[in-house]
Specification:
Chain lengths: ~300, ~120
């Protein structure tokens, strides 16, 4: 039984749970408890994939399953545990900083999975689609991870934002992006000579992503992070294709759709409405609201 | 996997997400982003399947690191979602309700004024 089928067996239940949860969480009147269904869905799929190995049904997979469980436990323990029930004034953990941590972790994971996929697929000359997915994964992973890291360092105060580059600099950035694309095509088409282009691609992608992330204006950070969440969705789609798992394809599509929603909808958050980070924006909003109120009272 | 099937599935999921499943109120839009960020935690499933099918020391080490960071980012995303949902005031009246209330009050005022005139 392929690993994709193993994921999908439990995945049907998880997908049903995810869809019910989505409709419950986006409905204003429902209860908060529903949010626990999302990690539960992930746990169901993980249990479906890990249980056959851990129970010893598949020879040679037992210790790998336990290694996976240990890595999972360490990863969850390493996450910053925000306490949800603190009062309003002390709830000053920045959402943007948390999102940056998410992007760093996802970026590293996607990059490593891309490298692993590359390791496994360079043997077959005909498997260009798998190589394309691997190169795409490496690029998205590096871009997302570096952007998250730069955002995190900027919020920490270690790095200072540079001013938006001149026109020539922007043209140079586009040229670098074109070179990255050409290198990717070379790596996909000629896997025998691909090591040097691939290394160069990673170096250029780091440079490109870092320069772009440094020059982004402070108030746009959340929108850029939303865009990167969409890119993570694209990476999940390509991983689902490589591992032939329908569940991952569907989840990737949903993630891309949610990120598009956010970028188009100019969403706001409840927890950062009184942050200094967003002072300018809230002041603008307040002014607008006052204007509206005065016009309505005049009526 | 057949590329046609994959394309169909992704297209359907995208359409589902864009039309129905994720359409929230305007003020819930940020929550929508955090929900899909939590969904991106399914990345850890891909990392685990890579670990289970790894063939060699290098792949094993890389996929173990991938599982670690994937689990960390998934947990962080969920905790952000939890914080956002708890930060939302529980009994906040709906904006539309407030508007309706205002309309009703104005109507009452009108009626009262009419009565006084008559």
């Amino acid at each position: 039984m392929g690993i994709g089928l193993m994921i999908d067996n439990a995945g049907w239940f998880a997908l049903g749970l995810v869809l019910i949860t989505l409709s419950a969480l986006t409905h204003p009147g429902r209860r908060r408890v529903w949010m626990w269904a999302l990690p539960l869905a992930i746990l169901i799929v993980l249990a479906g994939a890990l249980f056959p190995g851990a129970a010893g049904d598949l020879p040679g997979m037992g210790w790998k399953a336990w290694l996976a469980i240990a890595a999972l436990a360490f990863g969850v323990a390493a996450a910053p545990w925000y306490r949800a029930s603190r009062d309003q004034d002390t709830r000053l953990i920045d959402l943007v900083r948390g999102a940056a941590i998410v992007l760093i972790g996802s970026g590293i994971t996607i990059t490593l999975l891309g490298v692993i996929g590359w390791e496994q697929t360079t043997l077959y000359l005909g498997a260009w689609d798998l190589r394309l997915a691997a190169v795409l994964g490496v690029f998205i992973g590096v871009w997302t991870g570096v952007t998250g890291l730069i955002h995190w360092l900027r919020l920490k105060g270690t790095l200072r934002a540079s001013s938006r580059g001149s026109r020539n600099q922007q043209i140079a950035q586009w040229v670098v992006l074109a070179i990255i694309g050409v290198l990717g095509v070379i790596a996909v088409a000629y896997p025998k000579v691909a090591v040097a282009p691939l290394v160069l691609l990673i170096v250029l992608a780091i440079e490109w992503a870092a320069l772009a992330a440094l020059s982004q204006p402070h108030e746009d950070l959340l929108h850029i992070q939303a865009r990167h969440v969409g890119l993570v969705g694209v990476a999940i789609v390509s991983l689902g294709y490589v591992q032939s798992s329908l569940l991952l394809l569907v989840i990737g599509g949903l993630v891309v759709a949610g990120s598009i929603h956010f970028i188009k909808g100019q969403g706001a958050f409840c927890q950062i409405s009184r942050r200094t980070f967003y002072d300018d924006k809230t002041e603008e909003d307040a002014a607008e609201q006052e204007k509206n109120e005065s016009t309505t009272s005049a009526n | 996997m057949d590329p046609t099937i994959a394309a169909y599935v992704v297209l359907i999921a995208l359409a589902l997400g864009l039309t129905g499943a994720l359409r929230a109120e305007r003020e819930h839009c940020g929550r929508g982003l955090l929900i899909v960020t939590t969904l991106a935690g399914f990345l850890v499933v891909a990392a685990i399947s890579a670990l289970l099918t790894s063939q060699g020391a290098l792949e094993l080490v890389l996929s173990t690191i991938a599982v670690f960071f994937g689990a960390q980012s998934a947990a962080t995303a969920f905790l952000l979602l939890r914080q956002e949902i708890h930060a939302e005031p529980a009994d906040e009246p709906d904006e539309q309700d407030l508007l309706d209330e205002e309309d009703r009050e104005q109507q009452f005022a009108h009626e009262r004024a009419n009565k006084e005139v008559s």
